[in-house]
Amino acid sequence: MRMLLHFLKPYKLQTFAVLAALAVNLLGVLLVPTILANMINIGVSSRDFDYIVHQALFMLTAAVLSGAGAFVSNYFCADLATKVGRDIRNAVYEASLKFSGGDFERFGTGSMITRTLGDVNVIQQAITMTIQMMLPVPFAAVIGVALAWSIDEQMGMMLACFIIVVAIIAVVTVKKAAVIFQKLQRFIDRMNVRLRESITGARVIRAFGKEEAERKSLDEAFSAYADSAIKVNWLFATFDCSSFFIMNLAEVAVIWLGGNRVGAHAMQIASISACVEYAMLILFFLMMAQICALTLPRALVCLERCRQVIECPPSIADGPGTELTPAQDIVAHFGNASFRFADASEDTLHHINFFCRRGTTTAIIGPTGSGKSTIAKLLLRFHDVSDGAVEVCGTDVRDLTQRALRTRISYVPQKAWLFSGTIAENLRYGKPDATDEELWHALDVAQSGFVRELPDGLETCVAQGGTNFSGGQRQRLSIARALVKPADLYIFDDSFSALDFKTDAALRHALATEVAHAAVLIIAQRINTIVSADQIIVLKDGCIQGLGTHRELMRSCAAYQEIARSQLRAEELEELLGVDVELEADEVDAADAVNAADEVTVATEGGAAVAHADVHAAAAATDAPAAAPAEGGAPATEAPAVKGGE
Ligand SMILES: Nc1ncnc2c1ncn2[C@@H]1O[C@H](COP(=O)(O)OP(=O)(O)O)[C@@H](O)[C@H]1O
Ligand SMILES: [Mg+2]
């Protein structure tokens, strides 16, 4: 309620205008029966034509005023409700922009959509109905009874009794309906979630022939809603008929009492019709009010749901800083950072330590679920570390505004997402004033030559979510979008996985010069993508298993060797190393070979000398015909063939 007042505050004047117009309308409506009674009682019975004309003019004025009041109040009331609805929607949306990933998950996408659209609609309707149909009721009742009382005391008293009875029935019905309406809103959420899932996953459902199961599950959600809605309608129907019954009863009672009172000369004949009209008017108002009142509990639930979003303190708050020192050599730094998702029982990342330097490429490789994307999310501050610190350009990300932080980072998310519009609009997302040349350049670097072949080029339409492009095309477009944005740190989260090997290589080659001024963080699953990185982080179960160049890791990191062995054939490994080290199928890996050989010096920096030592060591230790695979043309080892992507 407090929140609603807050949203009504900017429209104080308009609210008062609506109420004033409503009062004029009400007064007009209530005056007409009394004027009519006077006309008949005084004018007709005494045949005073002037009096009749005089009263008729008075009645006309009242009717016109009442009509004007109704028009003004209706118009401004609808206007007010729509504006308040718009403001609440904006507030909900703005609040959601401040949400961290965790906050979003707490509400859920389906519920967020219901809250922004459906819930606000209910609130909007409730505002209109409350102002137009409920606020006038107490006034109508009091004035109506007072006017009836002024005609005849007994009549006024009887009318008051009827009003009290109907009011009691109304309160009871509203209380009952409130409970059901609260449930109803939750069912709408559920329908929304289920429907979204089944529409977006339609292809999977069809591919697995799960239409029947899906239909059943949706039917359950729809039925639960329908059952509750039917219960509410039962209540409505019961109330409706009892109210109509009471209205008719009131009419009969007024005429009966009126007849007696006229017979006793306590009342004039035309006053009966005035009293009947008052009874009907007030009871009708009451009935309308009750129908509105039935929707009020639902509106309150909706209001509460919007409040939850608007007043939800974002778990990630802006820091005070707005300035980053751009010239820093170390662009990003993880200092003993650990992280746990709010709903998880254990840490997803454990004591992560590494630097991303300007002009270098850092790669993260590891199995699915090892926490690679989470590292990117921490850098962008979609989540806050549970322990330790993440620094960008020498400042803790928590000390910066999120805006300042994110202007320095260009990010290609794991799931390539494009907005509906044109390609150019999508590419200009991070730099609105980018020229067409810049866009074409970024597209060329991102190997998006296909755009040149499109008849509309940069103005080609992008469907919602970019579904009119293939996965690989979407990925390349989102890489181009990231490249258009000037940044100190470029993050590519598994952005090369949907690209074929040749495009992947060409893209990395073009990228090398393109982002030489910045630090690059590449998250990958394929070893080919990252062999040339300046440093590679091997992540497993949220722990760094190894950190170094490809060469260093091949020698010292068992986890890395395992990945390499699972993805590469022996000759590819050789090619990558630039030497003819052989990986044996009998699990004698290069690292063991190195350890076994006496003459090997374990170096920390990769280099040709070390590589040579590797060759000798490998040859000595395994005693295998090192050149065999290359000569034979076919892999001599049993190592599994390349596995691309997830
Ligand atoms: N929003 C979330 N809530 C709870 N756990 C999550 C959430 N997102 C990811 N996880 C968990 O964190 C782990 C790492 O996820 P992620 O960083 O996406 O892995 P990767 O990118 O390496 O495949 C996974 O085990 C996943 O189950
Ligand atoms: Mg990932």
TrEMBL record:
Classify the main location.
membrane
Q: Where is this region: Disordered?
A: 622-646
Key word Transmembrane helix present: yes
Record-annotated ABC transmembrane type-1 domain positions:
16-298
- Mention one GO molecular function: ABC-type oligopeptide transporter activity
Q: Which CDD domains match?
A: ABC_6TM_Tm287_like
Q: Where are the transmembrane segments?
A: 16-36, 56-77, 133-151, 157-181, 278-297
Which cellular component appears as one GO term in the record?
plasma membrane
Q: How does it sit in the membrane?
A: Multi-pass membrane protein
Q: Has the keyword Transport been applied to this entry?
A: yes
| Alphabetical keyword list | ATP-binding, Cell membrane, Membrane, Nucleotide-binding, Transmembrane, Transmembrane helix, Transport
Q: Offer one Pfam family short name for this entry.
A: ABC_tran
Per UniProt, residues of the ABC transporter domain are 332-566
- Report the locations given in the UniProt record: Cell membrane
Descriptive protein name: Multidrug ABC transporter ATP-binding protein
Q: Which organism is it from?
A: [Collinsella] massiliensis
